[in-house]
From TrEMBL:
This protein's UniProt keywords: Chloroplast, Plastid, Ribonucleoprotein, Ribosomal protein, RNA-binding, rRNA-binding
Gene3D superfamilies tied to this protein: Ribosomal protein S18
InterPro entries reported for this sequence: Ribosomal_bS18, Ribosomal_bS18_sf
Protein's recorded name: Small ribosomal subunit protein bS18c
Gene Ontology process terms (BP): translation
Source species of the chain: Arbutus unedo (Strawberry tree)
Annotated GO CC locations: chloroplast; mitochondrial small ribosomal subunit
Length: 105
């Protein structure tokens, strides 16, 4: 009797169909930077297939397009704007400190 009840028991998860991130008209190409940039993290890494909600074939094409765009300098290999700014300010402080020391001698 318990087995019958379990068979007809509905799952508590609600299934919501999500729209695919790549529309049928979109072409996956290294020149389509607006499309490619959606699948890159803030650090410049390629997001996983699970995060992107892509099919295996689409993920492969996106990865190839991103790599081609990086080689052709359409996309950066890494995006370290924050890290670059931090290093720049630290180096400016260091050089100013060294200059003042040299002037005192």
């Amino acid at each position: 009797m318990d087995k019958y009840k379990r068979l007809f028991h509905k799952s508590k998860r609600s299934f919501r169909r999500r729209l695919p991130p790549i529309q049928s008209g979109d072409r996956i190409d290294y020149r389509n930077i607006s499309l490619i940039s959606r699948f890159i993290s803030q650090q410049g890494k390629i997001l996983s297939r699970r995060v992107n909600r892509l099919t295996l074939k689409q993920q492969r094409l996106i990865t190839i397009a991103i790599k081609q765009a990086r080689i052709l300098s359409l996309l950066p290999f890494r995006n370290n704007e924050k890290l670059f700014k931090m290093k720049r300010t630290q180096s400016a402080v260091r050089t100013n400190g060294l200059r003042t020391r040299k002037k005192k001698k």
